[in-house]
Design brief:
The protein is of the alpha/beta class and about 210 residues long. Helix content is about 35%, strand content about 15%. Strands 1, 2, 3, 4, 5 and 6 form a 6-stranded parallel β-sheet that branches.
């Protein structure tokens, strides 16, 4: 019997497209690992008048993420633009709805990682990455970062940190990812997929 595929959920919020660029590279990294697949999802914007999110179906891009996506995934990678050194409100709103999963221990021992983007070099990328990881640690997830053995962490002059992949949109005139930023996003996807696959293989099969 063949082994079941390892599915990594990539959930992001992107207003101007920079975080979406990273998300696609993360997915490429996930799917470069044999037996792994990426499920790309986004979250809706939150209205300015209340905490209720805008519920329209997206005209393009990834479908909205659901709690069922979280239940079924083998690993999770979150992405958000920087908002004053913190994750964007739409992603925070989505995570705030996961209390039932926390009570059930649904995400315990699954690997997790994060990525972000900012306009400026010192816009608060690392604190934003940590803000996404905090609720995931409460869920009992296992943090996966980018070690300095990844060549791009040492060579990047824009985005890319040991806390997760990142992008500085002002680093290139057209706002595209630099070569190092794209490579590190793929490396992050690969690392999470490999860890998730190893963990899944080590668990006893259900009767």
């Amino acid at each position: 019997m063949s082994n079941p595929r390892t599915e990594i959920l990539v959930v992001y919020y992107s207003r101007n497209g920079s975080t979406a660029q990273l998300a696609r590279q993360v997915c490429r990294g996930v799917e470069s690992v044999a037996g792994s697949s990426a499920r790309l999802r986004s979250v809706p914007p939150v209205s300015a008048e209340s905490e209720r999110p805008v519920r329209q179906v997206p005209d393009d891009g990834a479908p909205w993420a659901t709690l069922e996506d979280l239940r079924s995934c083998d690993g999770l990678i979150l992405g958000s633009p920087v908002r004053f050194g913190n994750m964007a409100a739409p992603l925070k709103y989505f995570l705030d709805q996961t209390s039932a999963l926390w009570l059930q221990g649904t995400l315990v021992d699954k690997p997790a990682a994060a990525f972000t983007s900012s306009q400026s070099m010192h816009g608060g990328q690392e604190s934003t990455l940590l803000s996404m990881l905090t609720p995931l640690l409460h869920h009992g997830m296992l943090f996966v970062g980018l070690p300095f053995t990844e060549k791009g962490v040492n060579e990047t002059r824009s985005g890319g940190t040991p806390y997760g992949a990142s992008h500085v949109s002002s680093a290139a005139a057209d706002g595209r990812l630099t070569e190092e930023e794209a490579a590190l996003a793929r490396a992050l996807g690969q690392r999470v997929a490999r860890v998730a696959s190893a963990l899944k293989a080590s668990r006893p099969a259900l009767p």
